[in-house]
Amino acid sequence: MDTDACIELDLRLSSGAMNSRAGRSGPILPSLHDLPISPALRALAERAEPRRYRKGVLLIQEGDQGDTLYIVLSGKVRAYSQGDNDREITYGVYGAGEYIGEISLDGGPRSASVMTLEPTVCVVIPRQTLLLHIAQYPEFAFELLSKVIRRARSATLSAKQLALNDVYGRLRALLESLAETRSAEATPAAAASVDSVLQRLTGVNAANGMNGMNGTPGLAAQESPPRRVPRLTHQDMANRLGCSREMVSRLMKDLEHGGYVTVEGADLILHRALPARW
């Protein structure tokens, strides 16, 4: 890790003030109590000093031995792998309240690289500190296990998408996933309807059994309210989908011409359900 690129803040998170010795522009030190995290994770974050990183800092190098957990307090980081031909695949983008690096806590090598996408503040937890914390907060072991299971499930789904779906199918799944995440953030208690779940999993419109874009869209697709998703760059999408940027650009242009997607500021607007086939 580029130690010159990070500035350790000489204060505890609970102090609520930033040491003036930092002396460089960067993210404001967040309050732990403002983050949507569990009490056990909050207590773990309070066991270490926060560190501030610039954009583009490599926090974790794939293949390295590692025994630290990073808790993101502000900013965003990207987990990814890079092939011999410099092609990249993105596993996920994580923001405030998330933690990364848990896979290597068994002493094995890092399974992915992690880089900051913007100025970021993290708390770095060594393995020994984590073990002591689990002894005091046993419930955090279940929280950590749940996180590992969810990410393993996500990795399985990604492998399935890459093996069984074409690029458009993977793009559609990505946009639907982003839309669901945005909807859940806006209305956390809202549950997905049976029709929406069936359509996402099977690619079939539950109202009339139609799929594909040939023919008139079904009633459910026409009445579906517009949904917003964060506007990723085409290169970001390509990195997540395991394809070229040019392919993403062509598909997105087709979706715009078909009236399915429009751009509005920092968002994409999905005006109706995306067709199962293109």
TrEMBL record:
Instruction: Mark the transmembrane ranges.
Output: none
Organism phylogeny: Bacteria, Pseudomonadati, Pseudomonadota, Betaproteobacteria, Burkholderiales
State what protein this is by name: CRP-like cAMP-binding protein
The cross-references to SUPFAM superfamilies, in alphabetical order and at most eight, read:
cAMP-binding domain-like (SSF51206), Winged helix' DNA-binding domain (SSF46785)
CDD domains in alphabetical order: CAP_ED, HTH_CRP
Print the keywords alphabetically.
DNA-binding, Transcription, Transcription regulation
| One cellular-component annotation, GO | cytosol
Q: Which organism is it from?
A: Sphaerotilus mobilis
* GO MF assignments: DNA binding; DNA-binding transcription factor activity
Instruction: State one Pfam family annotation.
Output: Crp
Database matches in Gene3D superfamilies: Jelly Rolls (2.60.120.10), Winged helix-like DNA-binding domain superfamily/Winged helix DNA-binding domain (1.10.10.10)
Q: Outline the extent of the Cyclic nucleotide-binding domain.
A: 41-151
